[in-house]
TrEMBL record:
Protein name per Swiss-Prot or TrEMBL: DNA damage-binding protein 2
PANTHER family: BNAC09G30780D PROTEIN, PROTEIN DWD HYPERSENSITIVE TO UV-B 1
Cited Pfam families: DHU1_N, WD40
Alphabetized SMART domains for the sequence: LRRcap, WD40
Domain U2A'/phosphoprotein 32 family A C-terminal, residue spans: 327-345
Ranges of the WD repeats in the UniProt entry: 568-603
GO cellular component: Cul4-RING E3 ubiquitin ligase complex
Keyword Amino-acid biosynthesis: no
One record GO biological process: cellular response to UV-B
Keywords, comma-separated and alphabetical: Repeat, WD repeat
Cross-referenced InterPro entries: DHU1, DHU1_N, LRR_dom_sf, U2A'_phosphoprotein32A_C, WD40/YVTN_repeat-like_dom_sf, WD40_repeat_dom_sf, WD40_rpt
Length: 772
């Protein structure tokens, strides 16, 4: 066995290398040697701290040569710290870190490096055992490089929103993962990424802390000094596992805390500086010894629960919780989706928790669409189809199984923004600003959208090319209502906010974008309906209705181009949306901010509705299911309900969690016929997909901006694709006032192209009640 180089010899070697390169030895490096000698004399592990922020360019070459000899020395481990801005160029810093090789232990980094550093860092991997990355402003994490030695990963206090589909794929030994105080909120993609970690035992997105003045809990060890990462500091009996919104969990649980802390070497201007997590652990130990009540450092988003044990009340506070923790059934969902997990948010997972998680998941979520439980691959489904398996009793059964298989392999749905740029000589490359859109009823490739400037545009959404363009006429006014004629599929009715109503024949419209303002040939103009928000054509294409910021609804005859009647005072507040049924030409529904939805029949006196169904908040919209069996109502702030069309009785309450905002206008539509509904709100960046028969959640789809300033996108409107299962389009608005809205196509059955996936590691990413 080769003799290991002693630390003193290694230090002499470093001084010689400095002389060779004509530079003075770095005092921080010399101090590291001294500390290592002290540890050796005390029979402690011989660990050296490399303070990369104290390394200058002149130190680089001798230090690089020294690191190449570390493997054959007495030094057992090198811990690398970047505590403040680093003067080394990024590629030099990364070369030094990698040169330590197999003896690389802890790596503590933050935002002082540029984007290219992190791309290379996450793409190529590292041999460290513990990695702490903090305060990074990136949207998505996609660590695809080999981190085969890594057992502890700390991603606390980052602006992390989600994960790429290759993330965590090369971390076979990762056991402990902490992502507290991040922006992660998507249960589906988070668990899809985390399920790639075969050794993951402890995960946390928050820290539950007992903060009572009197606690029966005592630490296992009397020592109050922090231990190194990877050792368990506490494992004590505690109160029940707290499942939010569920007070019925059994008592007696184990509060378990993996100690993610370590001491950061002090900086010049501080007597002592330990990590924030270390401070949390020390404070928790004092609390457990009943020395002082706990006051969390960050109380901005804190949840809590209290349990009574005799005369003692134990209170638990959630510290540094990420948004995902506040999702309904969060804990049960994570436990069911990650069956190898032993500890979640420092609360141990018992066998009874796993059983309860399975029950909760089955009652509230669909793992695969159409209740498919077997995880068949697409290839297997196709093989059974070719061999005419008896399982396929119908084309519908085959289609549903194929959809389930495709969705199983598509944890990250494909999202694509449509190119909405118009080009002509006077106004080159100006982006169109969509405000409303509708799929074509017969042609799967077409949709029409109206803009904030009053333009009507027919788009081939498969190719992204504009097929027809109709400019605005007179004063520009937003298009808020659009409806195709079904019997005459080249005709579309457009209604504007200023009340104008026009019927266009798109075959006679221009096929090129032009700034001309002359009237389109074949255009029919109807009497105005002031402050219009909604139009809809009946099933025979003979009549259409208009509603808006009034209590009235107007009925128009399409053939004669005349307004037949105005039905006055149908509601107590303005009628945001009016919809004809899909099959009965005389039946229609109205939704109003007076909290009522009403069903009407033109064959009866319209002064009295067939029935009235009430919500607890103002109704934003209503629509019929494709077979007219149900009415889908959407009230402010996620109050989505399905009613029986025949009598208005409640069939299903989707129980979507409200945000508390009175301006969170919610819209919902059917997808895949009557099978699923999609719902989105203007204060949220997600679309929820729920089973229309059970209300169980199939998936949430999060919208992502394309910029580097993290501007969020919110749902302004949405439609299910009538020709493609589990496809939809979403009209999304940015928070940036300077940005125009986009139409985003979503395919739940296709994965995002890996070549577009966040540049090998990182991707840096106005509400309105009108219309549907």
């Amino acid at each position: 066995m080769a003799t290991l180089t002693e630390i003193a010899t290694l230090e002499e070697k470093y001084i010689e290398l400095c002389k060779k390169h004509g530079v003075l030895p770095n005092t921080a490096i010399l101090s590291a040697f001294f500390e290592a000698e002290v540890k050796k004399s005390r029979n402690e592990r011989c660990i050296m701290n490399l303070l990369l922020d104290r390394v200058k360019y002149d130190d680089f070459h001798p230090l690089l040569e020294l690191c190449n000899e570390i493997d054959t020395s007495e030094v057992e481990e090198i811990d690398v710290f970047v505590r403040s801005s680093c003067s080394l160029e990024d590629h030099y810093a990364l070369s030094l870190i990698r040169s330590v090789n197999q003896k690389l232990g802890l790596v503590h980094l933050h935002e002082s490096f540029e984007r290219n550093f992190w791309q290379d860092f996450f793409l190529q991997g590292l041999s460290c055992k513990v990695l702490n990355v903090r305060s990074l402003d990136f949207h998505k994490l996609n660590i695809v490089g080999e981190f085969t030695q890594l057992h502890t990963l700390i991603l606390d206090s980052n602006r992390l929103l989600g994960f790429g589909d290759g993330c965590f794929s090369c971390m076979p030994n990762l056991t402990y993962l902490s992502m507290c105080d991040t922006r992660v909120s998507d249960l589906w993609t988070a668990t899809a990424a985390l399920s790639k970690l075969p050794s993951l035992k402890e995960l946390r997105f928050q820290i539950w802390i007992c903060c009572s003045d009197i606690s029966p809990l005592k630490p296992q060890s009397s020592s109050s000094s922090p231990t190194r990462v990877g050792e368990n500091t506490f494992h004590e009996s505690n109160s029940e596992v707290f499942e939010q919104m569920d007070p019925d969990l059994p008592v007696e649980e184990t509060l378990h805390s993996m100690d993610f802390s370590y001491t950061i070497p002090e900086e010049d201007d501080l007597d002592s500086c330990s990590s924030e997590l270390n401070g949390e652990v020390l404070m928790r130990e004092k609390v457990r010894r009943a020395k002082k009540p706990y006051q969390p450092n960050d109380v901005s988003q804190v949840g809590s629960f209290t349990r009574q044990f005799g005369d003692v009340g134990l209170k638990y506070i959630s510290s540094k919780a990420s948004p995902i923790c506040f999702k309904k059934h969060y804990r049960m969902y994570m436990i069911n989706s990650l069956p190898r997990l032993k500890v979640l948010d420092n609360l141990s997972i018992r066998e009874s928790d796993s059983d309860r998680a399975s029950e909760t998941y089955s009652a509230n979520f669909e793992h695969l669409p159409y209740r498919r439980k077997n995880k068949e691959s697409v290839v297997r489904v196709l093989e059974k189809r070719e061999t005419r398996s008896s399982k396929w009793k119908s084309q519908s059964s085959y289609t549903r199984s194929l959809c389930a298989a495709r969705m199983r392999s598509s944890a990250w749905p494909l999202l694509r923004s449509l190119p909405l740029t118009r080009t002509h000589q006077e106004d080159e490359n100006r982006r169109l600003s969509p405000r409303q859109f509708e799929y074509h009823p017969l042609d799967p490739s077409l949709m029409v959208f109206g803009t904030l400037d009053g333009e009507v545009v027919v788009l081939n959404h498969e190719s992204g090319k504009i097929v027809r363009y109709i400019p605005s006429y007179g004063a520009q006014s937003s298009i808020l209502g659009l409806c195709w004629l079904k019997m005459c599929p080249s005709m579309v009715i457009a209604g504007s906010a200023d009340g104008s109503l026009k019927l266009y024949d798109i075959q006679k419209a221009s096929s090129t974008v032009t700034s001309s303002s002359h009237a389109a040939s074949g255009c029919v103009t109807f009497d105005e309906f002031d402050q219009l928000t909604s139009v809809h054509v009946n099933s025979t294409d003979k009549l259409f209705l208009a509603s808006g910021y009034s209590k009235d609804v107007a009925l128009y005859d399409i053939g004669s181009g005349t307004r037949l009647q105005v039905f006055a005072n149908m509601h107590q507040e303005h009628i945001n949306v009016v919809k004809f049924s899909n099959h009965s030409p005389s039946v229609f529904a109205t939704s109003s901010f007076d909290k009522d939805v009403k069903l009407w029949d033109l064959r009866q006196e319209p002064s009295r509705p067939c029935y009235t169904a009430s919500s607890t908040k103002g109704n934003v919209m209503v629509c019929f299911s494709p077979d007219d069996r149900y009415l889908l109502t959407s009230a402010v702030d996620n109050e989505v309900r399905q009613l029986l069309t025949v009598d208005g009785r409640l069939h299903l309450n989707f129980e979507i969690v409200p945000t508390g905002s009175s301006m969170n206008y919610t819209r919902s539509y059917y997808m895949n016929g009557n099978d699923y509904i999609i719902s989105g709100s203007c204060d949220e960046n997600m679309v929820r997909v729920c089973c229309a028969q059970t209300g169980r959640r199939l998936r949430d789809v999060y919208l992502e901006g394309n910029g580097s300033d993290f501007s969020m996108m919110f749902v302004q409107s949405l439609r299910g694709d009538p020709f493609r299962d589990f496809n939809m389009s979403v009209l999304a608005a940015y928070t940036r006032p300077s940005s125009v809205s986009e139409i985003v196509k979503v395919n739940l059955l296709a994965s995002r192209d890996s070549t577009e996936e966040e540049s090998h590691g990182l991707r840096c990413y106005p509400s309105n009640s009108m219309g549907g």
